[in-house]
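REVIEWER CHECKLIST
Item 1: Sequence provided? yes
Item 2: Single chain? yes
Item 3: Sequence as submitted:
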Amino acid sequence: MNARKTTPAADLKLALGWLKQHGTRAAREGMSRYNIPSDRAFGVPMNQVQRLAKQLGRSHELASGLWDSGWYEARLPAAYVSDPALVTPAQMDRWRGDFDNWAVCDTVCFVLFDRTPHAWRKVEQWARRRDEFGKRAAFALLWGLTVHDKSAGDEPFVRSLALVERAASDERHLVSKAVNMALRAVGKRNPALNAAAVAVALRLAASPDPSKRWVGKNAARELTSASVIRRLARRPAGRA
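Item 4: Structure as written out by the authors:
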């Protein structure tokens, strides 16, 4: 695809044409192994999607067009192309309402939403949601913040552990996996947060609830491992 920009509408047409050209039936059929719906997919590998996003460059209007097209491989680069500074809470809620698979959910939360000024508020709001992907989005977003919000102190992460502990009872695999990943990520941010996250993990591990017990045992095993402890020992408290 030619990287030269024309208009967002023309670039959208070119991008969709490029995706169609680079999709394969084999890749599309293989998506089912990863629980990704293929009825609105071209069958383009993620590395090729990222290549396209790099060629497209930053364009908030183009990102909206890519998203609204409804195609799986168009929604992935939309996260890279969109401008975090222009993302509104309403856009976040609208896109979150369209999540229908874990790959789009996690990519959008980890590449775009966690870089917006509204991210922490959405973690709290979405953690109360009952729909599977809306709730997963809360903890995918929290996971992203542990990596990318370098300016945040420990307080918002400590508060988020209450959300983790409450959501750990969710039996749905896609939710419990995200809750587990968020807990582990918080606990690997610095020594103080490791101690707070381990305390939560141990409480969950002792629960009679099987979902809580799985989240807790899995997180506690990693967060108390020698490799994590050594890495955190080299990282000053309060530093990500």
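Item 5: Key structural point noted by reviewer: The two ends are 38 Å apart (CA to CA).
Item 6: Recommendation: ____
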